[in-house]
Design a protein that fits this description.
10 helices; elongated; alpha+beta; about 450 residues; 4-stranded antiparallel β-sheet
């Protein structure tokens, strides 16, 4: 049905640089004619509200018992959100993963956000879809002001939005719900295959890094219940006897790579920061990283945000940098620390309380025992599992690319429909009734940036 979509017969200029032409029969209405700002602080009634968050998946209910994400130290400064309200993040717009969400929950959210309630003239669902499309492509830069790229609420309210006729808004929402459901099911099916391939890969790696390559080698008890037997010629060391913290600051080192640790792909240069003009000259307080160092994100080590660096550069002071203090193969420990066994240990050793995120500090990480095979055997183990898992790695990479293409297609389709580049009225009438995918949180970025938090706000 998507292939049947065609442009409208007649267009007119919108006068808005981020919108271009719109169908000739659509109206253009200042936002103050569609929504109004509302701010009601919850004060000492905050215990009566559920805590909400604006994420890439929309407005969700937060589970504060997980300790995941940022929390305000004063919940009384949160503001009320009602079902049907539109939540906007109008500051740091270029860097914010999601700037708009339609709430389907009653609750409260940090006072840093801007809440708009619908005046009933247009569909709140269409309004959200339109501004999500603008947000996905960060097209509202003409409205920014100040160093933090803020859109003042009054400027936003004075900005015009397209307003199709009511039946056409309903057709657009119906069509995009259907199309998004189909695309989301395809994406989730590919993610399930990736998970299965990842489990196969992890099983190969886990056996190699904890038992070695020779199945006939004599074993001995490691003395550690969760590690079990290890090859007889291996030793067990505390992490602090293998690595120590690197504490060298970058100072005025210009031209250094900006590095980050990603939960699924390890250490990579932060090219996105360079494109935003965030050069090494602005990172004088960052840690120096040498090739072979391990970067540990203290907040997300338990999710696999630990990895060896193939680069020299600088990285966030929020990370710990582990430098080898004896000859070893860093890639061996890169994979050892990313096994489920060690991720569970990292979570157990992380410290924090309910309203603060857990952190794995080196005083705890350093106490964790690790196997220490001979260095040449460490390198042989790495070479073995790289070769053994090569086909799995290629298949996972291909599936990730297919998911990326599906998401890019979805972004473009939504933008073309909500801006009137494609007419969905006839197709929407023929759509079958389909249940939407379960509203589970979409782990949208398999290559999640471990720097990113769920909720971008000044807390």
């Amino acid at each position: 049905m998507i292939a049947d979509l065609k442009p409208y017969a007649e267009y007119k200029e919108s006068g808005l640089p981020w919108l271009g032409q719109v169908p000739g029969h659509w109206s253009l209405i200042p936002n103050r004619g569609l929504v109004r700002k509302r701010k009601v602080l919850v004060g000492n009634r905050h215990g009566d509200y559920r805590l909400l968050s604006l994420t890439k998946q929309g407005v969700i209910v937060r589970d504060i018992s997980t300790g995941k994400g940022k929390f305000s130290s004063d919940m009384g400064t949160s503001q009320e959100v009602r079902t049907g309200d539109l939540v906007f993040c109008l500051f740091d717009v270029p860097e914010t993963p999601r700037t708009v969400g339609l709430s389907r929950h009653d609750g409260m959210i940090t006072g840093a956000y801007t809440i708009f309630e619908s005046l009933g003239r247009g569909s709140a669902e269409y309004f959200e879809l339109f501004y999500r499309a603008m947000d996905d492509r960060k097209l509202l830069s003409p409205l920014y002001s100040g160093l933090r790229n803020t859109i003042p609420p009054e400027r936003f309210l004075g900005t015009k939005s397209p307003l199709p006729p009511p039946d056409e808004q309903a057709a657009i929402v119906r069509f995009l719900d259907w199309a998004n459901g189909r695309l989301e099911r395809a994406i989730r099916a590919k993610r399930k295959v990736i998970a299965l391939l990842g489990e196969q890969k992890q099983a190969i790696i886990h056996r190699a890094v904890t038992r070695g390559l020779d199945p006939s080698v004599p074993l001995k008890p490691s003395g550690i219940p969760w590690l079990g037997d290890i090859p007889q010629h291996w030793v067990v060391e505390r992490t602090k006897n293998v690595f120590r913290l690197r504490t060298q600051k970058s100072g005025l080192s210009h031209g250094k790579e900006l590095l980050s640790i990603y939960t699924h792909i390890g250490v990579r240069p932060r090219k996105d920061l360079e494109q935003k003009g965030n050069k090494a000259s602005t990172t004088d307080n960052y840690w120096i990283v040498q090739k072979g160092d391990l970067i540990v994100n203290k907040l997300l080590a338990w999710m696999g945000a630990v990895g060896s660096s193939d680069y020299e550069g600088v990285t966030s002071p929020a990370y710990d940098i582990l430098m080898p203090i004896r000859p070893l193969c860093s890639d061996y420990y890169h994979h050892l620390f990313r096994t489920k066994l060690y991720q569970q240990l990292f979570k157990q050793r992380s410290r924090g309380i309910m309203d603060m995120r857990l952190r794995l500090y080196f005083d705890q990480l350093g106490q964790i025992p690790v196997p220490f095979p001979p260095v040449d055997e460490q390198a042989a183990i790495v070479a073995f599992y790289v070769e053994e898992t090569a086909d799995l790695t290629v298949a996972i990479s291909r599936l990730n690319r297919e998911i990326e293409l599906l998401r890019e297609y979805r972004t473009r389709l939504v933008a073309d429909v909500v801006t009137g580049k494609l007419d969905v009225r006839e197709v929407a009438l023929r759509l079958p009734d389909e249940a939407p995918p379960d509203a589970t949180e979409d782990d949208a970025d398999l290559h999640t940036d471990a720097d990113a938090s769920d909720e971008k706000a000044t807390l």
